[in-house]
Amino acid sequence: MLGSRLGQAIDGQECVLRMNHAPTAGYEEDVGARSTVRVVSHTSVPLLLKNQPYFFQQSQDTLYIVWGPAKKMNREKMG
């Protein structure tokens, strides 16, 4: 994506999906700034939490979907 200069075209789409903790800040010209859906692996959640202002305060319109194995996602179990 680097050097593509597709940021404006990406931001112009109805739905923009991002994966895990992929950055947009500093790369807007190539990847855009909007995120309508961010799909996050359970292993990336700690990385997102370390940088909450960046990932969670960009837009209240972003839907976060966290996925992973049930044994890692269950609050009553370790993981």
TrEMBL record:
GO molecular function annotation: alpha-N-acetylgalactosaminide alpha-2,6-sialyltransferase activity
Keyword Lipid metabolism tagged: yes
Membrane topology: Single-pass type II membrane protein
Assigned protein family: Belongs to the glycosyltransferase 29 family.
Subcellular location as annotated: Golgi apparatus membrane
Reactions it catalyzes: a ganglioside GM1b (d18:1(4E)) + CMP-N-acetyl-beta-neuraminate = a ganglioside GD1alpha (d18:1(4E)) + CMP + H(+)
Gene3D superfamilies from the UniProt entry: Glycosyl transferase family 29
Top-level division of the source organism's lineage: Eukaryota
The protein, known as: SIA7D sialyltransferase
Organism per entry: Syrrhaptes paradoxus
One GO location term (cellular component): Golgi membrane
Keywords: Disulfide bond, Glycoprotein, Glycosyltransferase, Golgi apparatus, Lipid metabolism, Membrane, Sialic acid, Signal-anchor, Transferase, Transmembrane, Transmembrane helix
One GO term of the biological process aspect: oligosaccharide metabolic process
Major subcellular location class: Golgi
